[in-house]
Every structure is written in C-alpha cells, then in structure tokens.
Design a protein that fits this description.
membrane; mainly alpha; elongated; transmembrane; about 70 residues; about 0% strand
C-alpha cells in the first residue's frame, strides 16, 4: 500500500515537472487526477476495518476532591 501511494506521488511530481516544461492543459488535468487518486488511497488506508469494535469506557479518578 505504501509503495502504491509513493508511486502515485512520484507520478504526480513527474507530471508537475512536465507541465512546467510542456505547458499543456491535458498534462495539468492528468496531474490533478493523479493527486485525487493519491489522496483517495491515503483515505482508504486510514479507515478502520469492520473487525474493530470500539467501546466507551468511563474513567473514574481515585483521588478525593477537597
């Protein structure tokens, strides 16, 4: 997963450099699309799976209040 995110980031960098030299609108659109794919993979990587269950626990202090 890390390798795929890194490769998308490298591709976006390559497209950004190519846009600077080529000045092509299609290259800009491809770069924007690649960045959206990169951000989507990060979002999927940090979502919790179905196997995790969370439980709310109340924490009580042992200290007496004066």
């Amino acid at each position: 997963m890390l390798l795929s995110r890194l490769s998308f980031f490298v591709l976006a960098l390559i497209f950004a450099l190519a846009f600077i030299y080529i000045k092509n609108v299609a290259m800009l659109l491809i770069m924007i699309l690649t960045m959206f794919i990169f951000l989507a993979t990060i979002n999927v990587a940090f979502t919790p799976g179905d196997e995790r269950e969370y439980e709310i626990v109340e924490v009580k202090s042992n200290q007496r209040k004066n």
